[in-house]
């Protein structure tokens, strides 16, 4: 069964123990419930800190930054070796100001992992809500094949799938997912997601894992 970032998923438990507890100078400000997620994703090279050695866990994160993180998870290119190849894959009208993030956004847009706004922009430097982060993550897992993350109920559908998969199991019920997401919250949701099986959609079976799909096809055959 295929998982996101499968090439390093086997190292999750090892990294959670091996990554230094003092990976960041502000690591003591990381919420206890999210500390492992931050440490593991940093150790994987997926979610990095700042040049000054901080992580700034309660700081807001931009749409461009999340696109970069989703790119690394989805492609397993944790060293960003190929990201620049997709800088010209422009689907949005405001990519000229995206700078370093053009390749990440270009790849994710063409892979249908990220969506822009009705006016044709992506707003790379804008804050991103928890629901919007979840939508990107869930698309990487395989959801939104029927456009269920658009329209009036998109946030409800995002929350439904996230709850079903257990992505929000450590997230406090009082967390406002409609507000700008913090860096540590994004790390937690992503860490939970990479441990889930990716899904495939078919009209006959809906969203199922490859194993479930194979069993279903055998039963029909």
Element pattern in H and E = HHHHHHHHEEH
Distance between the termini: 21 Å
Specify the overall morphology: globular
Number of distinct helices: 9
Strand content: under 5%
Low-confidence stretches: none
The SS-based structural class is: mainly alpha
Counted beta strands: 2
Largest sheet: 2 strands, antiparallel
Supply Rg. 17 Å
Q: Describe the strand arrangement of the main beta sheet, using strand numbers.
A: 1-2
Query: Mean pLDDT, as a whole number?
Result: 89
Please bin the fraction of helical residues: 40-55%
Explain what this protein looks like in three dimensions:
With 221 residues, the protein is mostly helical. 40% of the residues lie in helices and 4% in strands. It has nine helices and two strands. A two-stranded antiparallel sheet has the order 1-2. β1 and β2 (206-209) form a beta hairpin. α6 (130-141) crosses α7 (154-165). It is globular and about 50 Å long. The chain starts with 5 loop residues before the first helix and ends with a helix.
């Amino acid at each position: 069964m295929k998982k996101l970032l499968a090439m390093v998923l086997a190292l999750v438990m090892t990294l959670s123990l091996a990554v230094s507890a003092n990976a960041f100078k502000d690591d003591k400000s990381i919420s206890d419930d999210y500390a492992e997620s931050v440490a593991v994703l940093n150790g994987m090279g997926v979610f990095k800190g700042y040049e000054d050695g901080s992580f700034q866990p309660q700081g807001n994160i931009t749409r461009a930054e999340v696109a970069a993180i989703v790119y690394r998870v989805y492609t397993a290119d944790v060293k960003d070796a190929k990201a620049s190849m997709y800088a010209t894959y422009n689907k949005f009208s405001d990519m000229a100001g995206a700078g370093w993030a053009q390749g990440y956004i270009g790849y994710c847009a063409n892979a249908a992992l990220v969506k822009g706004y009705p006016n044709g922009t992506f707003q790379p430097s804008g804050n991103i809500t928890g629901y919007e982060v979840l939508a990107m993550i869930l698309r990487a897992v395989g959801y939104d094949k029927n456009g269920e993350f658009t329209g009036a109920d998109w946030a409800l559908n995002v929350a439904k799938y996230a709850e079903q998969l257990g992505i929000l199991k450590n997230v406090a019920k009082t967390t406002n997912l409609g507000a700008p997401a913090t860096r540590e919250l994004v790390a937690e949701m992503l860490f939970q997601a990479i441990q889930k099986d990716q899904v495939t959609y078919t009209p006959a079976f809906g969203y199922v894992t490859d194993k479930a799909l194979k069993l279903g096809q055998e039963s029909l055959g």
